[in-house]
Write a structure and sequence with these properties.
By secondary structure, the chain is α/β, with parallel strands linked by helices. The protein has 2 domains: 4-125, 3-Layer(aba) Sandwich (Rossmann fold), CATH 3.40.50.2300; 132-223, Arc Repressor Mutant, subunit A (Orthogonal Bundle), CATH 1.10.10.10. It is built from 8 helices and 12 strands. The chain has helices at 12-24, 35-44, 61-70, 88-96, 109-125, 157-167, 176-183, 192-206; strands spanning 4-8, 28-32, 49-53, 79-83, 101-104, 132-134, 137-140, 145-148, 151-152, 174-175, 213-216, 220-223. The strands form 3 sheets. It has a 5-stranded parallel beta sheet, with helices on both faces. The chain has a 4-stranded antiparallel beta sheet with strand order 6-7-8-9, covered by helices on one side. A 3-stranded antiparallel beta sheet has the order 10-12-11. A hairpin with a 3-residue loop joins β11 (213-216) and β12. α2 (35-44) runs parallel beside α3 (61-70) and α6 (157-167) packs across α8 (192-206). The longest helix is centred in the middle third of the chain and has 17 residues, at 109-125. The protein is elongated and about 60 Å long. The relative contact order is 0.09. The chain binds calcium ion.
């Protein structure tokens, strides 16, 4: 059986067109016309991929993406955003929130299908290894690999350990002492000062996403929960 795609789109004509084309390409389709219906369907039978229109009545695309990424059972399902115009702000926000890719309307069916196939392949290649996910950030400790919205980020061992610690428990504040104790490497010394330097470097490497790495004055650091 082909991969199951959940099409979330409030405009019936567009939804029909996508369904017809995806079905012809061998996919099995399910449809939802608003965010809440999509959430219920995703929970009832998790699809392999979600095509998510950004402008929806009620719970909009961004709201639905947030709900999906906050649910450990649904968070791994890749989401491709469908945006009406090339609304850069929406795209950036969507990718930061964990969307796998985006397609701007009007789109060609060939492009849409190619993007879907590429994302599904990426999922198959991903090893079933311990993975820490925090919104668009994915950390695979076994491989010391970190990606933000699918883009590799080069981190030092210390930076990786620190980021993994903070991302494994968003919202929790760690003191410098706790960070030193939890990330101490065998071959590299960690001091309070080194933690501060790593935080600065991480914020720089994470770009706009780095704003989520918060300083709690007089206490320590946390990832925004
Ligand atoms: Ca729409």
């Amino acid at each position: 059986m082909g991969n199951m795609i959940l099409i979330v789109e409030d405009e019936e004509a567009i939804r029909d067109l996508i369904r017809i084309n995806l079905t012809a390409a061998g996919f099995v389709c399910d449809e939802a016309e608003d965010g809440l219906q999509a959430l219920a369907k995703a929970k009832a039978s998790p699809p392999d991929l979600i095509l998510l229109d950004w402008m929806l009545p009620g719970l909009d695309g961004l709201g639905l993406l947030r709900r999906l990424k906050a649910d450990p059972a649904l968070a791994p399902i890749p989401v491709i955003m469908l945006t009406a115009k090339s609304e850069e702000g929406d795209i950036v926000l969507g990718l930061e929130m964990g969307a796998a890719d985006y397609v701007t309307k009007p789109f060609s069916n060939k492009v849409l299908i190619a993007r879907i196939r590429a994302i599904l392949r990426r999922g198959e290649e991903e090893p079933a290894e311990e993975t820490i996910r925090y919104l668009a950030l994915t950390l695979i400790p076994g491989q010391r690999r970190a990606t933000l919205a699918g883009q590799e980020i080069a981190l030092t061992c210390g930076e990786f350990d620190l980021l993994a610690l903070l991302c494994s428990r968003p919202g929790h504040v760690y003191t410098r002492g706790q960070i030193v104790a939890r990330t101490k490497g065998e071959d590299y010394p960690v001091t309070d000062r080194a933690v501060d330097v790593q935080i600065v470097n991480l914020r720089r490497k994470l770009g706009a996403f780095g704003e989520r790495l918060e300083t709690v004055r007089g206490v320590g650091y946390r990832m925004r929960g």
